[in-house]
């Protein structure tokens, strides 16, 4: 089956995302049928841009009618992954651009993040094991939680470096998400 | 980032009047908590009831804020919204901080 024509890109305030609404509504729209959402955003690698992009993503995901916990998970994982690029791939004197792609599939939200900054050290994403809780207050960790959260809340993490571009891909399970993919035969 | 300070039944309560403690404000947050609690002795309660998002940078800033309190002081948390509460639980930082439902329950009157 072809891709659902209601797939759309939001983010850039594109003029035309109307006109296709209402077309090809699933005949058996039940709670497990999700709207098709596809987001592509490019933005400067700064913490404030990341904050704005997260707002744009929240808005873009509204057609999915996710529950607040799922939305929170997506926002948190994206925040951690994007802020890692801001803080580690791009040094302060050489800011660059980040491109974020998200789309919904039967097995959850698929995410790709690309940048042209420094490669990951050791050629791959950190393991992000839980920091052991030290006995004394003074040595409590103030950092290192980011990769732990990404690994805990996402699946299928892959990192690649091609030419001068880093790409990090992962998937976020949406737990009601035996979401029927657009075009799938109805159950 | 705006913080408020009030006394509730003798306890210093720092209110965070922002919806997010994230990477964009984490360092400023830590510095401002230090400034506003510089005279605090004993227990300080951080009222997070207006905060609906925190990331690992914000979590690190709260840990740092606790560590920079005077040695006699402790930092408790109150009013965690669900997505904030979850970050503390996932990272097990809920075992480090005393967490209260609200600032009021964190600071009961002496009569109770």
From TrEMBL, chain A:
<keyword id="KW-0067">ATP-binding</keyword>
<feature type="compositionally biased region" description="Basic and acidic residues">
    <location>
        <begin position="14"/>
        <end position="24"/>
    </location>
</feature>
<dbReference type="Pfam" id="PF13581">
    <property type="entry name" value="HATPase_c_2"/>
</dbReference>
<feature type="region of interest" description="Disordered">
    <location>
        <begin position="1"/>
        <end position="31"/>
    </location>
</feature>
<dbReference type="GO" id="GO:0005524">
    <property type="term" value="F:ATP binding"/>
</dbReference>
<keyword id="KW-0418">Kinase</keyword>
<dbReference type="InterPro" id="IPR036890">
    <property type="entry name" value="HATPase_C_sf"/>
</dbReference>
<dbReference type="InterPro" id="IPR050267">
    <property type="entry name" value="Anti-sigma-factor_SerPK"/>
</dbReference>
<dbReference type="GO" id="GO:0004674">
    <property type="term" value="F:protein serine/threonine kinase activity"/>
</dbReference>
<dbReference type="InterPro" id="IPR003594">
    <property type="entry name" value="HATPase_dom"/>
</dbReference>
<feature type="domain" description="Histidine kinase/HSP90-like ATPase">
    <location>
        <begin position="46"/>
        <end position="171"/>
    </location>
</feature>
<protein>
    <submittedName>
        <fullName>ATP-binding protein</fullName>
    </submittedName>
</protein>
<keyword id="KW-0723">Serine/threonine-protein kinase</keyword>
<keyword id="KW-0547">Nucleotide-binding</keyword>
<keyword id="KW-0808">Transferase</keyword>
From TrEMBL, chain B:
<dbReference type="Pfam" id="PF01740">
    <property type="entry name" value="STAS"/>
</dbReference>
<protein>
    <recommendedName>
        <fullName>Anti-sigma factor antagonist</fullName>
    </recommendedName>
</protein>
<comment type="similarity">
    <text>Belongs to the anti-sigma-factor antagonist family.</text>
</comment>
<feature type="domain" description="STAS">
    <location>
        <begin position="21"/>
        <end position="110"/>
    </location>
</feature>
<dbReference type="GO" id="GO:0043856">
    <property type="term" value="F:anti-sigma factor antagonist activity"/>
</dbReference>
<dbReference type="InterPro" id="IPR036513">
    <property type="entry name" value="STAS_dom_sf"/>
</dbReference>
<dbReference type="InterPro" id="IPR002645">
    <property type="entry name" value="STAS_dom"/>
</dbReference>
<dbReference type="InterPro" id="IPR003658">
    <property type="entry name" value="Anti-sigma_ant"/>
</dbReference>
């Amino acid at each position: 089956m072809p891709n659902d024509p209601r797939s759309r890109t939001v983010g850039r305030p594109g003029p035309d995302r109307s006109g296709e609404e209402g077309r090809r509504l699933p005949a058996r729209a039940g709670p497990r049928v999700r709207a098709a959402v596809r987001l592509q955003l490019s933005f400067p690698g700064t913490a404030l841009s990341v904050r704005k992009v997260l707002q744009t993503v929240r808005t873009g995901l509204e057609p999915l009618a996710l529950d607040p916990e799922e939305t929170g998970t997506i926002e948190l994982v994206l925040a951690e992954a994007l802020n890692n690029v801001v803080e580690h791939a791009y040094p302060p004197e050489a800011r660059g651009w980040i491109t974020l792609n998200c789309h919904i599939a039967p097995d959850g939200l698929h995410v790709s993040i690309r940048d042209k900054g420094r490669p990951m050290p050791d050629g791959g994403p950190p393991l992000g094991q839980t920091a052991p809780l030290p006995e004394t207050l003074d040595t409590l960790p103030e950092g290192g939680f980011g990769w732990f959260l990404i690994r805990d809340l996402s699946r299928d993490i892959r990192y690649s470096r091609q030419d001068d571009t880093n790409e990090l891909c992962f998937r976020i399970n949406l737990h009601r998400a035996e979401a029927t993919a657009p075009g799938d035969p109805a159950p | 980032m705006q913080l408020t300070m009030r006394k509730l039944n003798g306890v210093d309560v720092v209110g965070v009047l922002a919806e997010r403690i994230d990477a964009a404000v984490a360092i400023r947050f830590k510095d401002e908590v230090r400034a506003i609690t510089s005279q605090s002795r004993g227990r300080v309660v951080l009222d997070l009831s207006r905060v609906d998002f925190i990331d690992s940078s914000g979590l690190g800033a709260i840990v740092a804020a606790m560590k920079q309190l005077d040695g006699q002081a402790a930092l408790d948390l109150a009013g965690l919204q669900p997505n904030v509460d979850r970050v503390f639980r996932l990272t097990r930082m809920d075992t480090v901080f005393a967490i209260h439902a609200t600032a009021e329950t964190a600071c009961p009157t002496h009569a109770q």
